[in-house]
Design brief:
The complex is a heterodimer. By secondary structure, chain A is mainly alpha-helical. In chain A, about 65% of the residues lie in helices and about 5% in strands. In chain A, helix 3 (about 55-80) packs parallel to helix 8 (about 210-230) and helix 3 (about 55-80) packs antiparallel against helix 11. Classes of the chains: A mainly alpha, B alpha/beta.
Chain lengths: ~425, ~625
């Protein structure tokens, strides 16, 4: 029935992703903006925050963010939806990355690599990671909570160790090896059909490598996000939510815990594997140490800040965590300029920024200084730590929780409940 | 009768008497894919198309034939509103049976009285609770009752009683019978007569036992032409198949039957069954009905819930809501003084109020799409009507009773007069007796008589054959009718003054803190009142004032609460003449209940029972 958003006459209408016309239009417009963003378009490049995407250096960060989004969505399925804390996400990303380099990377005398095209190495990275996830899952069924976190943490160290045992895969020492580029070939022919890693010309437009990569990653992310959103409203999704809320009760209701935890690990690892392969590919070269605990913790932070259990939460969290260091950098740079100059408020900015030794300020622009004043390179980590504490204390549901509060305020209008 | 139907297919159909069942068949034939019923099950509104509905009606009708229901046999139904109610009702009419509705709240003693009085042959008892009531009755008292149908098997399947029959099995019997005797129901339908009794509607009976009013096919047919036709309830606009109705009041009451079942078959709109009376608010929000009927009690509760929820809102919302309610009261007054139409002033104010408050408020109470709402069955206070008018729900008070198929008077859009029950319908016999002031009607909708009670039937009619409604009314401006009171409720004080208690009671009940009020004073020196508080609102008030309380009785006997009620009484006293003021009042120490005999099934106070039960309270006021 038109104009009756709460009148559900079938389960499919009740569980639609975008139930109302308003939401459909909003998501359509948002997607259109995302498509137009990397260009210098007349109106769009005037919108603050969005304008910067025309800029290549920003686009590089955004591409990195899109990959992190995929990985975060994966962890969200395991931790947010299934309630299983995991510190081993970096390990699964590593598994994906090394699968990619093994399948798609160039081989040589002391490096293994089969040089296969992207349509083999990218799915392979997901599948292999998923298989490893399935192997790990039984441990998760036996332990939970903190113990599971420690168990999965062990995976990260096992991964580091394996990278040393197999230098043929991981490359020599801490240098790492070169990953296959994002380019589409049918097989091993000379010229790729689509090359995302070089500037080119699509239709009537000149398009840079970053812009191409952006579109490729955006398409992938859309697929993965829809998959994640759909998963939450299937039988599997409901089973996982039941296990998250009370695993014993779920088991008693007839939800096979082992089976669904295994599925959660498999899907989550698959996301991580693909994200790992992509991340390594756009980075070009990565040492094994890149897949360490810090990376895992970063994803936990993303979920905590963004909000557990929701696709939109995971996306918002990633946006925040990946882009905020860049924003902090920009702000400090701007403040420094102000402090050095003689604008009306230069005194105010000068009191925050310490320009050199002896100058008063909280933030130091010196790269090498440690302790107080705070070196600006360490600033984003501090902010991010503070944010986690703040979110845990005041808004455990994260950015998503803030959104829910705002939405409920208007939904309840003119009452409060 | 109703012009909304397509041409009948052949002469054979043209000849037959139109019944609610034959109307339903027409809809099934003309619009088979249209939604007729919706019922919420497992969290989803399950839909019944006309095709499916008629199919079920036919199955049920064939099953009734298989159970040997003869013309004139009674089929009784005691159930909450649900599709089975309507299906069995229409099926019974199809086989020329008589539907008898019982309130789901009727206790065993009343069920025993009703079933023995009507002598039903097949009884539909919804679930274990209702089945228990019938099984508790001595079988020898119900010799005709051969089958008890139930539709909720939980708890009943283990019962060992030959009369019990599961609804699905009942339908299965019908399907078998339908295969073997195709057309038997259609044949029975074609034999229907205009003066066939199609339903017994038991009037609630504030005095004495309930009486079953016999309504015939012609009664209902006439009522439908008057209520849903041109110049009916809604003036020029007629309900169409796009309209939605929420069915939530007991279907055995003539009002809900009219607004649900009979509107369904005459206008082809969609009935949506509320899950229960407790979820009405939620279901309203989901369904957003376009046509709505409620008794004053429901309107009062809606009004109170807006005020209470408004008090709980955050500061900014509270301020805006206050402004909105202020606007609503101005708009309401303007509209009411302009026959229910917008004036320029109210139109402009509405333009301001609608986007900020009214739209979302209407959405919340579930009446945003409602273009016609009725209030009836009891008097409603003007404040409540003004409030709903102000926020944009067009509520029209109407008047009628079971005995005249509810065809008497109504307020129509654009011709509303506050405080009246509107104008009589066109071309009906309607008069106010000059001597007694009693309202009397005479038209084809007037009932045949009371079932098995010829002497009560005789009492109901005047010597020249007009129906005595028992209500005292008076003309307002020569066109509209105002109801003064029930004739037998009018109080004559020892000073010889005639006073209508219901006006005073309504004024008291307009306060959100008062749920029940009964004015006493017959043969007394002054007026007094028994007042029952509304637990929800007074409880909320006490919470805010930090007054601790335990039970209903404890709360109503708190000094602060008595003071609160005193202020309500004072407000009311200001509106009335000196002889009509309430000098003393006492709190009713319990929540009144149907089962305890203080209220009728329609929640009206039984005055005699009340004065007996609380005689010490009453006497204490006159010492």
């Amino acid at each position: 029935m038109r104009g009756r958003p709460n009148l559900y006459t079938s389960y499919s209408s009740e569980s639609r992703l975008f139930p109302t016309r308003t939401q459909q239009v909003a998501i359509g417009i948002a997607f259109l903006l995302l498509l137009l963003m990397p260009f210098d378009l007349p109106v769009i490049d005037q919108i603050p925050l969005i304008r910067f995407l025309g800029d290549n250096s920003w686009l590089r960060v955004v591409n990195r963010m899109l990959i992190f989004c995929i990985a975060a969505l994966g962890l969200n399925i395991l931790s947010g939806l299934g309630g299983q804390v995991s510190l081993g996400h970096a390990f699964f990303m590593g598994v994906g990355a090394y699968t990619a380099v093994l399948v798609g990377g160039p081989g040589s005398a002391n490096l293994w690599g089969w040089g296969l095209p992207i349509w083999i190495w990218l799915p392979a990275s997901g599948v292999v990671a998923a298989v490893v996830g399935i192997l790990v899952a039984p441990a998760a069924v036996r332990v939970r909570g903190l113990y599971l976190a420690i168990t999965t943490l062990g995976l990260v160290f096992i991964g580091l160790h394996l990278s040393r045992v197999f230098p043929e895969i991981a490359g020599p020492g801490s240098l790492g090896r070169k990953w296959p580029k994002l380019e589409l070939r049918l097989w091993k022919e000379e010229n790729p059909i689509l090359d995302f890693s070089r500037d080119g010309h699509w239709f009537w437009f000149d398009i840079s490598d970053n812009q191409k990569t952006y579109y490729f990653l955006l398409a992938l992310l859309t697929v993965f996000a829809l998959w994640a959103a759909n998963l939450a409203r299937t039988r599997t999704g409901r089973a996982l939510a039941a296990i998250r809320d009370q695993d014993v009760a779920a088991e008693i209701m007839g939800v096979p815990e082992t089976k669904y935890k295994t599925i959660a690990f498999a899907i989550s690892s698959c996301y991580a594997g693909v994200a790992g392969a992509l991340l390594a590919s756009i980075s070009g070269q990565m040492p094994p140490e890149a897949w360490d605990l810090i990376l895992s913790v970063e994803f936990v932070a993303i979920l905590l800040i963004g909000g557990m259990g929701r696709v939109s939460g995971a996306l918002a969290g990633t946006f925040f965590v990946v882009l905020s260091p860049r924003f902090v950098e920009e702000i400090i740079e701007w403040m420094t300029k102000q402090a050095e100059g003689d604008g009306a408020f230069s005194g105010l900015w000068d009191s925050i920024i310490s320009l050199g030794s002896g100058d008063f300020g909280i933030v130091s622009i010196s790269e090498t200084a440690l302790g107080y004043p705070i070196p600006y390179s360490a600033l984003d980590e501090i902010i991010y730590g503070a944010l986690i504490v703040i979110f845990m204390l005041f808004e455990p549901l994260g950015l998503y929780g803030i959104w829910i509060n705002v939405r409920n305020y208007w939904k309840g209008w003119p009452f409060s409940y | 009768m109703t012009a909304t139907l397509a041409e009948p297919e052949n002469a054979f159909l043209e000849d037959i008497t139109e019944t609610v069942a034959s109307l339903a068949r027409q809809w099934a034939k003309n619009c088979p894919k249209q939604i007729a019923l919706r019922e919420k099950d497992f969290g989803i509104w399950q839909e019944y198309t006309w095709e499916k509905t008629w199919d079920l009606i036919l199955d049920a009708a064939h099953a009734l034939l298989a159970l040997n229901i003869q013309p004139g046999d009674r089929v009784s139904i005691q159930s909450e509103d649900r599709p089975e109610w309507v299906i069995l009702d229409l099926a019974a009419v199809a086989v020329r049976g008589v539907t008898v509705g019982l309130y789901p709240t009727n206790p065993t003693t009343e069920v025993e009285y009703l079933l023995t009085d009507c002598g039903s042959a097949v009884h539909f008892a919804e679930d274990q609770e209702q089945v228990d009531r019938v099984l508790d009755i001595d079988q020898t008292l119900l010799p005709k009752l051969t089958h008890i149908l139930y539709t909720e098997p939980r708890g009943v399947v283990s019962y060992d009683d030959g009369r019990l029959l599961y609804w699905e099995d009942f339908l299965e019997i019908g399907r078998t019978h339908r295969q073997d005797n195709n057309g038997a129901v259609e044949k029975r339908m074609s034999e229907a007569q205009g003066d066939d009794v199609m339903t017994l509607v038991y009037t609630s009976g504030t005095t004495g036992p309930p009486k079953g009013a016999m309504l015939t096919n012609d009664n209902v047919g006439f009522a439908l032409t008057r209520l849903t036709g041109e110049n009916g309830l809604r003036g020029k606009r007629k309900p169409t198949s796009d309209d939605l109705v929420l069915t939530y009041l007991p279907l055995c009451h003539v009002a809900e039957r009219i607004f649900s079942t009979w509107h369904l078959v005459s206008c082809g709109l969609t009935l949506n069954f509320a899950e229960s009376i407790d979820t009405v608010q939620l279901n309203l929000r989901e369904i957003q009905p376009t046509i709505f009927f409620a008794v004053p009690r429901i309107w009062e509760r809606m009004h109170a819930s807006v005020l209470i929820k408004g008090n709980d809102a955050t500061l900014f919302k509270r301020i805006l809501l206050k402004i909105g309610l202020k606007l609503a009261s101005i708009i309401g007054k303007e509209k009411v003084s302009n026959n229910g139409k917008h004036t320029i002033k109210s139109w402009v104010l509405n333009l301001i109020g609608y986007p900020i408050i009214f739209r979302s408020l209407l959405e919340r109470i579930g009446l945003r799409r409602c273009w016609h709402a009725g209030s009836g069955a009891a008097p409603i206070s003007s404040e409540i009507l003004e409030f709903f008018m102000g926020i944009g729900v067009p509520v029209y008070e109407l008047y009628g009773m079971t005995e005249n198929s509810a065809v008497a008077t109504t307020n129509r859009p654009g011709r509303l007069k506050l405080g009246t029950v509107g104008e009589p319908y066109e071309d009906i016999g309607f008069r106010i007796d000059e001597e007694t002031g009693e309202i009397q009607t005479k038209h084809p909708g007037v009932f045949l008589g009371y079932w098995n009670k010829p002497e009560r039937t005789a009492e109901a009619f005047t010597e020249d054959g007009w129906l005595r409604t028992g209500d005292v009314g008076e003309w307002v401006d020569g066109t509209h009718v105002r109801i003064v009171d029930r004739m037998k409720d009018i109080i004559i004080t020892s000073g010889g003054k005639n006073i209508s208690p219901s006006e005073i009671e309504n004024s008291l009940k307009a306060s959100i803190y008062v749920k029940e009020a009964m004015v006493i004073g017959d043969q007394r020196k002054f007026l007094s009142a028994l007042i029952g508080i509304e637990l929800e609102t007074v409880g909320d008030w006490a919470l805010r004032k930090n007054i601790p309380y335990t039970t209903y009785r404890d709360l109503s006997e708190k000094e602060e609460v008595i003071e609160l009620i005193q202020s309500v009484v004072n407000e009311t006293n200001e509106k009335f003449a000196r002889v009509e003021t309430i000098r003393k009042f006492q709190m009713i120490p319990k929540e009144l209940d149907h089962e305890d005999g203080e209220l009728t099934a329609t929640q009206k106070i039984k005055r005699t029972a009340m004065t007996d039960m609380f005689s010490d309270l009453v006497e204490s006021m006159y010492q």
